[in-house]
Design a protein that fits this description.
The protein has 240 residues and is of the alpha/beta class. It is 35% helix and 17% strand. It has one domain: Glycerol-3-phosphate (1)-acyltransferase (3-Layer(aba) Sandwich). The protein has a 7-stranded mixed beta sheet, sandwiched between helices. The C terminus is likely disordered.
């Protein structure tokens, strides 16, 4: 109930305070389990995305967000599940939590890059999104988030109002053709790369085939740019 109360309050405020444009929302199935796989540029991604999806959306998030009772209610209210990184495999606990959501026919959102980009590029995806899809049989809907880092950059505490934000949903990816592959590791990598290629086309940010955990100074160029859709389709910007 708290989720829908927060959504009812924040959705009109979102559209009042920011210039939000949503494209392809019809690609999100109205019923049944589905995985939303998006690029990750800002803390606000986890706010914008659920507010434009008509179904309840669940994330996993760092447990530190839930340690303060003053804010824990909000993170739980917007559909986030706390995961602690210490003590065992955090990735497996996150997958288990996601599977619980999908078994109930829910919507689970994930950032395949694993963390927010620090340099503006779209980065290589971790295979957790593919593992989750193959375990659950749920389709993956790729999502491109554009402009959320302009609203609230990584080093800024308060958002900038009236900035444009675009959220694009792509056509669902049917993962059935990867099921039962002779080499599971290869199948996971290929499916993840397909997801990131579609996300690249949707968001238009330049793709770099390294993980987002790498430091920004490791890259030869200083600033990423928003590529055109034609640029995003070129082999050098697609996942390999």
């Amino acid at each position: 109930m708290l989720y829908w109360v927060i959504k009812a309050v924040l959705t009109p405020l979102l559209h009042l305070c920011f210039r939000v444009r949503v494209e392809g929302r019809e690609h999100v199935p109205r019923t049944g389990p589905v995985i939303l796989a998006a690029n990750h540029r800002s803390f606000l991604d986890s706010i914008f995305l659920p507010l434009v999806v008509r179904r309840r959306v669940t994330f996993v998030a760092k447990a530190e967000y839930f340690d303060d009772p003053k804010t824990a209610w909000f993170f739980r209210g917007v559909g986030q599940i706390p995961i602690r990184r210490e003590g065992g495999s955090a990735s497996e606990r996150a997958l288990d939590a996601a599977m619980d959501v999908l078994r109930r026919g829910g919507v689970f959102a994930i950032y395949p890059e694993g963390t927010r980009t620090r340099d503006g590029y779209l980065h290589r995806g971790h295979t957790g999104v593919a593992r989750l899809a193959l375990r659950s049989g749920a389709p993956i809907v790729p999502v491109g988030l554009i402009g959320t880092d302009e609203v609230q950059p990584v080093d800024r505490k308060l958002p900038r109002l009236f900035r444009p934000v675009t959220i694009r949903f792509g056509e669902p990816i049917d993962c059935a053709r990867y099921t039962g592959a002779a080499q599971e590791r290869l199948a996971l990598r290929e499916l993840t790369d397909e997801v990131m290629y579609d996300v690249c086309q949707l968001c238009g940010y330049e793709y770099v085939d390294t993980y987002a955990t790498r430091k920004a100074e490791d890259f030869p160029t200083e600033v990423a740019h928003i590529a055109t859709f034609e640029d995003a389709r070129r082999p050098e910007t697609a996942a390999s």
